[in-house]
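User: For a benchmark we're assembling, each entry needs the component sequences followed by a predicted structure for the full assembly. Here are entry 17's components. Please fill in the structure.
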Amino acid sequence: MSVPETQIAQAPALQEPELRKALSSSRPKRASALSATLTFGWRGMLKVKHVPEQLIDVTITPVMFTLLFTYLFGGAIAGSTSAYRDFILPGVLVVAVLFTTVYSGIAINTDVTKGVVDRFRSLPIWPSAPLLGALIGDMVRYLVAATVIIVLGLILGFRPDNGVPGVLASVGLVVLFSFGLSWVFTSLGLVMRSPQATMNAGFMSIFPLTFLSNVYVEPYTLPSGLEAFVNANPISHLVSACRGLMDGSADAENLIVVLGTTVLLTAVFLPLTTYLYRRA
Amino acid sequence: MSFDVPYGLIAHTMEGRMSTQSTLAIEATGLQKSFGDTRAVCGVDLAVRRGSVYGILGPNGAGKTTTIRMLATLLRPDGGEARVLGHDVVREADEVRRGVSLTGQLASVDEDLTGRENLILIGRLLGYSRAEAKARADDLLEAFGLADASGRLVKNYSGGMRRRLDIAASLVVTPELMFLDEPTTGLDPRSRNQVWAIIRALAGAGTTVLLCTQYLDEADQLADGIAVIDQGKVIAEGTPAQLKASVGSGTLRIRLLDPEQRPIAEPIVAGAFSCEVHFEADPAALSAPCGSADQAAEVVGELSRHGITVANFSLGQPSLDEVFLALTGHTAEDVATNGEGQMEEEGAAA
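Assistant: Structure for entry 17:
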C-alpha cells in the first residue's frame, strides 16, 4: 500500500503524553478462573452479536426442511400435514441445534489460524477458561436456533400436549447433548487446516447422521440393516426423548442413552480438545 | 566470526535463586527445537540485559519465530534452557507469562470484535475490573491513534491499524518484557514510523524489548544489541555499530549530472577511500564502500573542486544481504530458498 507524500507529512503523530500515560499501568490481581471463563463467554456472545450471519446460515436449512417436508411429503408420509408436522418438529429442533455445534469447531479453528490463541495462551489465565467460556457463547447460539424452530412450529400450529414445560425440558436436553457433541467438533477444529475445511468435514459428518435417524421417518419403514443403524444412532434416542417430553410419552431408556452418550462424548473429547488446544 | 560481546561477561550467571535478582531479562543456553526432521533452532544462546532493546536479525526460516515462541512459553524447547525474568520457561511458565507480552507475526486480535472490545477482553482476562478495563482500553486507543476506529470491527481495519491494536493488546498491562516478532513487516512507511515510536516509548518507560526483524535498519534504529541468527544458530552478536563495522560499513552511491565525467570521477573516489569503485548500470552512477558520513562529504567536496557536478548522492547502510554475505559467505536469499524457508511458518502453525 503506498501512501502519498503529503499524507505522510500530515499524518497525526502519536500523542507523546498519552503514549507515556498508556505505558505506565500497574498489574492488577490475577483474574480468577471463573472471571476469566465468564469473560470468554462475553466474547462468545459478542461474536453472535457481530456475526449473526453464521446463525442464519445454520437455522435456515432446518426451517426450509420443516416447510418442505411438512407440505410436500407430510400427506404422503403421515397421512396429513398436521400429523407429520407434530412428528417432525421435535426432530427438526434437534437438527437445528446440532448443526450449530459445528460452529464451535469453526470458531476454535479460526482462533488458531488467525493467531488469537497465541495471545490467550501467553496470558496468565486458567488454561481451560477459553474452552469452557466458549460454551456460554455456544449456549446462546443453541437457544437462538431452538427458539427459531419453536416459533416456526407455533406459527404452523404445533401445540404439544405437555405444553411449555415439555418444550423447555426438550430444549434443555438438546442443549445438554450439544455441549457433549461440541467437543467432537472442537477436536476436529484443532486438527483441520482451515475454518472452511472444518466446516466441510463437520457438516459432512453431522448431515448424514441427522438424516440416518428417526427425525423424518419412522424406522420400521426402513430396510432392516438401515433400521438397525437408525435405532442405534444416539440422535434417534435424542429425538425420541424430545418427542416423549413434548407429548407426554417419555421413557427412561431414551433419556439414559442420551445422557450416557453426552457423558461419554465429554469424557473422550473434552480431554482431547484440551490436549490439542495446549499444543496448538 | 565473533565480536567483543559486552553482555558476555554476565552471560553465565549462577543458576537458581541468584538469577531471580539477575540483571538479565533473558538468559538462554543451547536452546533447541525441531519440527519432524527439520531442525529449526539448533543451540541458541542469548543474554539480554533488563531495560535494553535487543534485536534478533535474520532472514525468513532462520529460526527467529521459533526462538521467540520458546522464550514466550508457547513452544516447549527440545533441549537447552531458558530463563526469562528469572523464571524457567518450562517449569515456571506461568510466572514468565505474568511478566511478558508477545506480539507475533499474525496479528493476534479477534477480527469479529471491535478494537475497543478486543482491549477490554484482554484487560478483563488480566484481572482488571470492568471499569478499569474500559479505562485502559480508552487510554490505549487514544495513545495509539485508534480512538476514532474504536467502535469498528477489526476485520475492517487497515494493516497498520491492526498492527497497532495488536501491540496495544500486548500493553494492556505494561509488561516487563515485550516480544515483538517482525512488528513492521508489510507496513507502509507511516505505519512503520508509528510502530517505531511506540517501541521507543515502551523502551523509554523501562520495558525490555526483544525484537525479531529482517531489517538491519530497524534493528539499528531501535536496538542496543543485536544477535544475527542463521539456520538456527547465533552467528554474530554485538552492538549495531560493531555489526556494521564488521560488515565493512555502508555504501556511498554517487550520481553525476554528466555521465561523460564518470571516468574522471572514478580515480578521485577510489583515491579517497583507497578501495575499488563500482560502475553501476546507470551510466552516470558509481558506488564505493564508505566508512563514514564525514568521508562521504569529503569525497563529494573533492569532486566538485575538480569541476564534477554531483546530481545526488546517498550513504546507505549495509542491507541484511550484505551483512549475511559478510558473516556467512552466502546471502539471506540463499537461506530462504534452500528449502528451510518454511520453517518459521511451520513453527508458527505447530
